[in-house]
């Protein structure tokens, strides 16, 4: 371990970094892990980012020294996100291939929102599109970056590859929910996607026992969506209120249990862009 260049540089007198015992011993832990997999599972190849080269070769060396075995390392240059951090399970805000850890909607949104420079790199790395198609997309994107065609194609290709066409279509429909959508589409969203789409919007709690409730009371008494029933009346009559994407124009209308989405929520909208989640408890 001491003979490795990466360790020598860090522990040299000229280095201002130094190395903690935890970091120093990490390669031994990973090396033994490779040895165990080789011995018990027949694993002869470990893949990783270029930063893992020393750790992986420690494993292959351990296999050779302990049992005279042969194992191999394969690394590739690190692929970093726009903020300079790498793709990895220990990084904050990372994305997972497992839909239980990162929903297809969140997965789709990640690729859709990458920076322009990253999109040009990622579409070459993470998709199977041919060179001519990629170069054409990049050229069109540079001519009209506002259309974000490159990000849209990237997000579609990677989401379909990892989660399938249906998951992509659902993610696309969910992403359009803030700018349109309807009650039927809203009710099709699973709870996790629903909460992801409307993350960070104001929320209120409302006991289920208090339903049904008149729309004006719902907006101004049971919640603080509007400051008064008078303001609520004006908004409803002015076609400015929607419940679960359906416009409410009758001041005598009631919000009922049938308006609950995913068993727990009602989505209220004031104007075009102001959303509120009412948690039914």
Question: What can you see in these coordinates?
Answer:
- This protein has 281 residues and is an alpha/beta fold.
- It has three domains: 5-76, no CATH class; 104-175, Tyrosyl-Transfer RNA Synthetase (Orthogonal Bundle), CATH 1.10.240.10; 202-280, RNA-binding S4 domain (Structural Genomics Hypothetical 15.5 Kd Protein In mrcA-pckA Intergenic Region, Chain A, Roll).
- The chain is built from twelve helices and nine strands.
- The protein has helices at residues 5-11, 21-41, 53-67, 104-112, 116-126, 131-143, 149-163, 165-175, 183-188, 191-197, 215-220, 229-237, and strands at residues 45-49, 72-76, 203-206, 213-214, 241-243, 246-247, 254-255, 265-270, 274-280.
- It has a five-stranded mixed β-sheet with strand order 3-9-8-5-6, with no helix packed on it. The chain has a two-stranded parallel ribbon with strand order 1-2. A two-stranded antiparallel sheet has the order 4-7.
- Helix 4 packs antiparallel against helix 7 (149-163).
- The longest helix has 21 residues, at 21-41.
- The chain is elongated and about 80 Å long.
- The protein starts with a helix and ends with a strand.
- The model has no long low-confidence stretch (mean pLDDT 90).
